[in-house]
Specification:
The protein has one domain. Helix content is 71%, strand content 0%. Helix 4 runs parallel beside helix 15, helix 8 runs antiparallel to helix 10 and helix 8 packs antiparallel against helix 14.
Length: 378
C-alpha cells in the first residue's frame, strides 16, 4: 500500500499528541496548555482508525481480488512489523532500572501474551502501561482477517452494517454495565474504595479490548467503503472541506464532553464513538485524491515512519532525561521541555533505524513487496 501524505500527517499528529499527553510524567508544557495536553490520549483513537483503515483495505483488497487471504503471510508480516522493536523495549523495561516510569510493573507474561490490557489490577505497576493499545491492536489482528473472510463469502452491505452495529452498540451497552457495577458509586462496594476509582476506570473501561473497538470499527468501515463502494468514497472526497470541518467540530465536541470528568458515565458510554467519528472524518479526508491527502508537511513523513518506535520508547527516554536534569533548568520549563523533545526523537530514531527498519527491509525483501504504508501501533 503506497503512502499517502495526508495519512502521514495524521499519524505524525497522533504520535505528537500522545507523547504530549504522556509528558505529564515530567511536568508537561506547563501552564496554559492544560486542555490541549490533557486531551492527547485521543491520539490513540486516531491510531486505531488509521490501523482499521489500512489493515482493512489490505485485507478487503486481497479478498476482492482472489476470494481468499494468505493467513500465514498476513501474520508473518504482522509479527515482523510489531515484535522486534517491542521485544527490545520490553527488555529495557525488565533489565534497565533507570528506564521504567514507575518501579512497579505487571508480570512479564502479560506483556509477552499481549494481555496486559485485560489484567491490569495494581496502579503501582504502571510501567509500560501504554502497551495497552498495542494489545488491543494485536487482538484486532488475530480476529479481523477471519471475520472479514467469513463476511465476504457472500458479501452484502447489510451483513457488515449488522456486525459493526453489534460491536459499537454492544460496546456502549457493555461500558454502561461496567461503569454501573465497577466504576460508578455502586462500584465502590464491588471494586474497592472511592479513591481507587481511577484504577477501576482503567481496568474496566479504558484498557480492555472489548471497550475500545470503536476506532477500529470506524477505520474498517472506511476501508470497506473504499474497496466495495468506491462511488461513496468519491462522493465524500469531493466534499473534503466539509469532512475536515466535521472532524474538527466532532473533535471539539468530544474534548468538551470529556473535559468535565473523563470517567463519568456518559463520556465512558458515548464518548468513544464520538471520538471515533471525529477521527474517521479526518482519515476519510486524508485518502483519495483530495488536497488534504496530498498535503506534505516537513518532518511529518519521518514522524509517521518512526511513530511506532517513538511510541514504544518515549516514556523510558523521559525517565532518562529526567534523571539527567535533576537540579538543572528548574526555572526554564520550555527549555527543559525542548530537551525532552529532542531526546525523545533521538531515542525513537535509534530504535527505528537499529531495529524496526532493518526487520521491515528484511521482510519486504523476503516477500518482494513494497514497504507498507501503515504504522500499525500508537
Amino acid at each position: 500500500m503506497s503512502r499517502l501524505a495526508g495519512l502521514d500527517t495524521l499519524r505524525a499528529a497522533a504520535i505528537a499528541w500522545v507523547i504530549l499527553f504522556h509528558s505529564y510524567l515530567i511536568g508537561g508544557l506547563g501552564e496554559g496548555y492544560g486542555l490541549f495536553q490533557w486531551s492527547g490520549w485521543m491520539g490513540v483513537d486516531l491510531f486505531f482508525v488509521l490501523s482499521g483503515y489500512l489493515i482493512g483495505t489490505q485485507v478487503f483488497k486481497a479478498l476482492q481480488r482472489t476470494g481468499t487471504l494468505d493467513f500465514p503471510a498476513f501474520y508473518k508480516r504482522r509479527f515482523v512489523r510489531i515484535l522486534p522493536a517491542f521485544f527490545v523495549v520490553l527488555a529495557l523495561y525488565e533489565l534497565w532500572p533507570a528506564w521504567p516510569e514507575t518501579k512497579g510493573m505487571q508480570p512479564l507474561w502479560q506483556f509477552l501474551t499481549f494481555t496486559f490490557n485485560l489484567q491490569y489490577t495494581n496502579d503501582d505497576n504502571y510501567a509500560f502501561s501504554h502497551v495497552w493499545s498495542l494489545c488491543v491492536e494485536e487482538h484486532f489482528y488475530l480476529v479481523f482477517p477471519f471475520l472479514a473472510y467469513a463476511l465476504t463469502r457472500k458479501p452484502a452491505a447489510w451483513k457488515f452494517a449488522v456486525v459493526a452495529a453489534i460491536v459499537v452498540v454492544g460496546g456502549m451497552l457493555l461500558r454502561a454495565w461496567l461503569w454501573t457495577h465497577f466504576v460508578g458509586p455502586a462500584g465502590n462496594s464491588v471494586g474497592g474504595a472511592a479513591d481507587d476509582r481511577g484504577l477501576r476506570y482503567l481496568r474496566y473501561l479504558y484498557y480492555p479490548t472489548w471497550a475500545r473497538l470503536d476506532g477500529l470499527v470506524a477505520g474498517v468501515a472506511l476501508a470497506a467503503c473504499g474497496v466495495y463502494r468506491p462511488t461513496w468514497f468519491a462522493w465524500a472526497h469531493a466534499r473534503v472541506n466539509l469532512l475536515l470541518a466535521l472532524g474538527v467540530a466532532l473533535l471539539a465536541a468530544a474534548i468538551v464532553f470529556f473535559d468535565a470528568a473523563r470517567a463519568d458515565f456518559w463520556p465512558c458510554v458515548a464518548g468513544y464513538p464520538l471520538v471515533a467519528l471525529a477521527m474517521m472524518a479526518f482519515v476519510a479526508a486524508g485518502t483519495g485524491a483530495t488536497w488534504f491527502a496530498r498535503l506534505k508537511i516537513p518532518g511529518a513523513g519521518w514522524l509517521a515512519s518512526a511513530s511506532y518506535s517513538l511510541y514504544l520508547s518515549h516514556k523510558g527516554v523521559f525517565m532518562l532525561v529526567q534523571a539527567a536534569l535533576v537540579g538543572r533548568l528548574a526555572d526554564d520549563g520550555l527549555l527543559r521541555f525542548a530537551i525532552y523533545v529532542v531526546a525523545t526523537l533521538a531515542g525513537g530514531a535509534v530504535l527505528h533505524y537499529a531495529v524496526e527498519r532493518p526487520f521491515l527491509r528484511w521482510r519486504d525483501a523476503q516477500t518482494k513487496t513494497a514497504p507498507e504504508g501503515a504504522v500499525l501501533s500508537n
